[in-house]
Amino acid sequence: MLLHIVARGRIGRSPESELVDRYLKRIAWPTRVTELPDRGGKLPDVAAATRRVVLDETGKVMSSVEFARQLERWRDDGVREARFMIGAADGFGDAERDGADLLLSFGRATWPHMLARAMLAEQLFRATSILANHPYHREG
Fold first, then answer.
1. CA-CA distance, 63 to 134, in Å (whole number)?
2. Does residue 98 come out as left (phi exceeding 0), alpha (psi in the -120 to 50 range) or beta?
3. What CA–CA distance (Å, rounded) separates 97 from 99?
4. pLDDT tens-place string over residues 13-71
């Protein structure tokens, strides 16, 4: 299953981009990052068997294990792509939130979108590590 991050804003060469790259390179599953301008830009087409996850402060707060199990269910159900949407400073409108298969939150605090991208990349690595029984994740 492809793990596809679609993010508003250009990360450029920055400490955050180094973190994103560091975690995405460790993931054994295929990954892709698509950057869009803060406003406008064409979203990549959504193919069949795609699940859309919108990062939103009002979304569901999940433990790392819960997140891993969600990815596992989608993978085992034949989902071809899990698309993770990260908005710009103003987040997403109702249409994007309503069209999501999952609204995901990293807590009730508001995070800069560049840090949210790094946090998402780490959680994707952690989730795939959990599913591979790799010792990276420690419960407790």
1. 17
2. alpha
3. 5
4. 888 899 999 999 999 999 999 999 888 888 888 888 999 999 998 899 999 999 999 99
